[in-house]
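Dear Dr. H.,

I hope your travels went smoothly. While you were away I took the liberty of generating a structure for the chain from your last submission, since the lab meeting agenda had it listed for discussion. I wanted you to have the full record in hand beforehand rather than looking at slides cold. The sequence, exactly as received, is reproduced here:
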Amino acid sequence: MNKKIFVLIPDGVGLKNFAYGTFPQIGKKLGYEIIFWNQTSKDLSENGLKQIKLKARPRAVTDLYKRAKIESELDYFTDKFNDPVYQTYKFPPSGTNLKSRIKNSFVRMLVNTHSGERGVKHLQRRMEEAERKSKYYTQCFDLLQREQPEFLFCTNQRPLTAIAPMLAARDLGVPTGCFIFSWDNLPKATKVVDADFYFVWSDHMKQELLKYYPHILAEKVIITGTPQFEVHFDRQKRLEREEFINRFRLESSRKYLCFSGDDITTSPHDEVYLEDTAQAVESLNSKGYDIGIIFRRSPVDHSSRYDKVLENHKHIITEIRPEWYKAGEAWNEILPKEEDLGLQTSIISNTFMVINLGSSMVFDYASYKKPCAFINYDPTDRKALKDVAIIYDYVHFRSMPNRNAVLWIDNKDEISGVIKKVLEEEVSSNVENALEWFKKINIQPVEKASERFWNFISNLPSRNVS
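The corresponding predicted structure, in token form, is as follows:
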């Protein structure tokens, strides 16, 4: 039996989930030859992994069809579900030069002339037809024909660079699977690749996928969970308190909370929230508490927007930067180091709570049975660039079984009270509700996600691919 598996890695999230965790180890033990089709600049041979590098060169027009397809699909979701929330997922056109204006006009024309389910499907076909004409598609076709893998697994459903490999596999009859990599992706119409099988976090996400794409057969949707939380259940990956304190020169007597930063699109005023949190901690410390803040910024945020706050409060804030690096200027060229898995889980292990604006870190902390507080207010001293109410109306937050799965910070004056509540251990019900939410979002036990992927792959010959 052919036991060669191709794993398509288009970006840093794919590296973190499938190249750095237990996924390769389990596959090797099962006797599989795992070849990472690595579209990033990271050299996976340094990690002892087999890789194929093929320069991804999608056609420019394919990207325009992709943009139009996503926008038209969001319009379709708006009408079909009678819900304006889908319009909030749209990004304004970028670029003001002549070339950008021409591209934006072409996308707008496509959207205006392709509406409803039929229009979306037509744009999907146009996108695929355009990419089949690329030299890149031919290279992908030749590679797969030569290597003849048993299965092509794509670790992300949305990259432009994944379209040609997945199309080539389909045209050659190579079975394909695609992972829906984030809990908020499906309502955003980000699924641009079609696959024989789809891997999702939970039954909740499976029902979402079938809701948005009713042509997909239920038996083609496989519930695996996500590997991103597995590290929290590996004690060898985390630093114990003494080593953590010494490595980052922290105060051994202090209790630390984590402020987890968001990207600038989601939270354009994140530095204000960090300042408000620092002031709340200063106030508590003046009353006899001894609290510090560990600041972990979003891995894709390399801006200077926090610098002033960090300098003004350096006696209580310690920034521990994610172990990610810029390998290029594009967003998907910000890549993780393997060390970041241990770093992130060590921060969670050694802090008593997390404060952020609506991030999935709520589930990382739930893995440790620790609480999360969501910021739920706009800055008072400036015009809000993004209304925070828009964030919590997003579809993925509607999955919360109980609003008290998190602690809500509705204005900056509430921060100190929320921190005190956690320190005084009055949040057990919040943690229990967070765990219930986590169970709904991600199949349990969490640490078995990679095993579930391989259980599916091991049984692939018996499955109906057509």
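Two observations you may find useful: Residues 365 and 371 are 6 Å apart (CA to CA). DSSP finds 17 helices and 15 strands in the chain.

With kind regards,
E. W.
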